[in-house]
Amino acid sequence: MASRNDTPSLIPVQAVDADLIRFEKNLLQIGFFGANDTRNSHPTTRTIEHEVVRDGHKIKVSAVFRSSAELGLPSTADRDKFIAFLKIVQDTKWKSGKITNPIRFSGYRMIKELGLSRHGDIYDDIMRWGNRMTDSTITSGQVVYLASKKLYSNETLHVFRSFKRTGFQSMKDGTRQETFEVVLEDWLLENLNQRYVVPEDFNAYKQLTRPTAKGIFGYLHLWFHASQGRPVERDYVELCNMLNIQSYPHLSKIKSTMGLALNELTKIKYLSKWDIQPMVSKKGYKIIFFAGEEIMDILKSSRERKKALERPFVEPASLTEAQLNAMRGLQAHGIGQEKALQLVTLYGEDRVLDVVEHIEAQISRSRTKIDNPAGLIIYHLENDLPIPQSFMTTRKLQEIERQKKADQEQRDEFIRLDLEYREWIDRAVSEEIDARFSPEELQGKIRTIAIQRTKTDPVFKRVNGAQREAMALQLLRKEVREATEFPTFDEWSVGRTQFKLF
Prior knowledge:
This protein is an alpha+beta fold. It contains 19 helices and 14 strands. Strands 2-3-5-8 form a four-stranded antiparallel sheet. A three-stranded antiparallel sheet has the order 4-10-9. The protein has a three-stranded antiparallel sheet with strand order 12-14-13. Helix 2 crosses helix 3 (107-114). The termini are far apart.
């Protein structure tokens, strides 16, 4: 019998931004990937049974997993590779917005996603993983949900229809490069396209080292989504059965085994804390899980995205000219009409046009051909990648010009109003002087001011009589203006302009 040589544990990564992948919900819920370490054993069958309530009735559902003695059933190492494979599948969905068979990828791409180094056996590990995924069967007793048919299956299913190595190349550094091809079974392909999935953060997953922690990791998304973040209780023995790990009757042993996995999940903030308590209804223990901030952030973002995807479909005829321009920009790079409409509806025409222009600039500057600009555009939009501030999009330039024009109009309006205000003050001062003095009295007042200032002000001595009288009038006007309570410019200008003045 061939010995099984599983891929080593993923290299833990430092906490970084979320890298969401979409895990097919059935494979997660039914425990297809055990959390046991099977390097020294080859279990070929296991059964999961439990009761559920559907349409008001309690029924028993089951899943039976079978595989060959040579390959064994999928476990933690296979889960690692499957998540990396889902990441690759997600990236291939860029252009058309739909996953199609066959799915091809390089072994190096999978190794890179897993954070592993290349060695002589790593490609053989991938080959064994693919064969195991193809060989394993699921006999569903009303447990596997078929999203396209909206019913639960009563049949035996495979996950991969086929898996094969399609290429081999020796590299200059002595390593080799291999390529692989997967054909998914119809039910899995349809469920992925129907978004019957659970978002999981691949980067958070790669921080885990214990198989049990990795097994619980996926369930936390389901549990806390259903509880809306409230604490969740699970029967310890039933959880061990789902994870395909050994259960223990004593509290101290539970804490020294599963407790270590729960501590890992607490460390990455998927749990805020956990507890173990005796059950009331029967003998045994229950695990109490308390949601951590990281998983709540993931659930919140996935809910928001789901709401966005559920927005009513907008017919092209009802789109604005700006939205149609954004769609044309996407379609010019090979994105289909339905996908283009979805992107414009989700992210808005301004964001779409900015991203398209940014990618076009990258393409024009690149020395190497970019084979999939459509995929690059979709990736930037779906992952909310920022456009560098230094890159001036047409929209940004137009906005700058509009702002400059608006600022200049505002300055011009301010100057016009300021002049009008000063003229109004002058007229008001003139009216006040006319009200105080008759023409003869005014002339006498001006002469008196001129005579008095000539005695004390050298400037008045140096000018002629007409200039003295003109200066005397200005002094009188100044005094009257300062003695009169006029409205401020802001008060006076209210209602005289649509601009917000300084």
